[in-house]
Design goal:
Helix content: 25-40%
Number of domains: 1
Radius of gyration: 16 Å
Number of strands: 7
Structural class: alpha+beta
CATH superfamily: Gcn5-related N-acetyltransferase (GNAT)
Mean pLDDT: 95
CATH architecture: 3-Layer(aba) Sandwich
Shape: globular
CATH topology: Aminopeptidase
Number of helices: 4
Strand content: 25-35%
Largest sheet: 7 strands, mixed
Order of helices and strands: EHHEEEHEHEE
CATH class: Alpha Beta
Length: 181
């Protein structure tokens, strides 16, 4: 039997340095980018894809803790339409989906430690975020991924559907949405 995890709001661990270190470890282990020019580039990457959520919208972040209290996954997001929110102005790909973000304004990023995958923890985190977004009145939630990415099946199993796609460089991005309420 797999040991259970507890899903907690980020604010409950925000002052725990070991929890932040574990979240960072999950973030970097799950990232497709593994090599950075220097520590400043690594820090900027963390800020762009994780740090801004923890700092600016911590109420929309949740953490999965194992029995020892170690973070084995997280979900961070924002309830504001990212195509309109100045916090995300440095992510031009979001403008490609500005025509659909009003229906799915709450955006999310989710990552799990390798040993936590395939246990339903990701779906628990999605449900925590979806409940939070629905309670705040968001009509839908979304994630953006790449065509052919391994996480597309996970999102489909979690109730997301492909709403739009757009080319950016040599990649095709997929906008995955899930209606709430």
């Amino acid at each position: 039997m797999t040991p259970p995890v507890t899903i907690r709001p980020f604010h409950s661990v925000a002052s725990d340095r070991s929890a932040i270190a574990a979240i960072d470890a999950v973030f970097f282990a799950s990232s497709n980018t593994k090599v950075f020019a220097d520590e400043a580039a690594r820090a900027a990457f963390r800020e762009r894809w994780l740090g801004r959520y923890l700092q600016h919208v911590p109420a929309s972040c949740f953490v999965a803790l194992d029995q020892a209290g170690r973070a084995v996954g997280y979900i961070c997001g924002s309830l504001q339409d990212p195509a309109l929110d100045p916090l995300f102005a440095d992510q031009p790909h979001l403008q490609l989906f500005a025509h659909v973000t009003p229906s799915y304004p709450a955006q999310l990023h989710i990552n799990l430690a390798e040993e936590a995958r395939g246990r339903g923890i990701g779906r628990e985190l999605i449900e925590a975020f979806a409940s939070h977004a629905a309670a705040a009145g968001a009509p839908g939630i979304h994630a953006v991924s790449s065509r052919g990415a391994r996480n597309l099946r996970f999102y489909a199993a979690s109730g997301f559907a492909e709403i739009a796609s757009a080319a950016i460089g040599d990649k095709e991005l997929v906008f995955l949405g899930r209606k709430l309420g």
